[in-house]
Every structure is written in structure tokens, then in C-alpha cells.
Amino acid sequence: MSEKKPKVLIVDDEPEIVTLLKAFFEKSGFEVSDSANGELALKHLGVQPANSSVVLPDIVILDIMMPVMDGYALNAKLQADPRTAKIPIVILTAKGQKMRELFEMAPNVAAYVQKPFNPKVLKDLISNLLSGKK
What we know:
The protein is an alpha/beta fold. It has one domain: Response regulator (Rossmann fold, 3-Layer(aba) Sandwich). It is built from 5 helices and 5 strands. The chain has helices at 15-27, 38-44, 71-80, 96-105, 119-131; strands at residues 7-11, 31-35, 59-63, 89-93, 109-114. It has a 5-stranded parallel sheet with strand order 2-1-3-4-5, with helices on both faces. The chain is globular and about 35 Å long.
């Protein structure tokens, strides 16, 4: 039986960042999907509208500042849904000073990374978080 690829969802409105992360994570053996804002991510995850047949990612990389629905609102909805409440979130943002509050208040936030970031450091962080997951 082959080892399953870890699944990562990238939620970010900056196409350059999404393209960079997708290429980097796919090359590193991850299955990658993306959404450009929180509302699209909720559809992708089967939260709104509800769809329990959606295969959930192992981890979500979440930008905070996005149009339509920002990362704060999305994370609140993910925490409120029993299917998505335990998915680890890695916050990726330029707003580093605000992250401490979110990090301490949100039990599903595993880490945060400030932009600009090193993709290898981010991949290593995510690999470490996933390897600790049973």
C-alpha cells in the first residue's frame, strides 16, 4: 500500500503566493488545493453549503487579509463546525503584531508565519506539525 500524500489547503488572495506555495508543496509530495478567500474556502471544505462528503485537508495555510471573507471570519467558522474544528491552521500574514491574539484565542491555530517567508521553512514547519499528528 502506498503512503498517502498529506493534503494542504492554501487560502490566500495573492496569486503569486498561491502559485509559489502550490509548486513548492507539490514538488515536496503534498496534495495541494487553494481558495482565494474565506467564502470560497468554506465551499471547498464543505462547510457552507454543508457537504459531509468533502475530503478535508490535513492542514490549512491561511492568510488573514483577504477580500470577501478574511482569515479571522473564516477561522471562526471553521472552529464552529465539528468537521473542521480540529484541522490545524498555519496563519500566513504580513500582520505579525496581531497574530499573538489570534494564536492564543484559537485552539486550532498551530503556528503563524510572517510574510515575507521562506517556503522551505514553512514546508518544514508543516511537515513537523503533520508528523506529530496521529
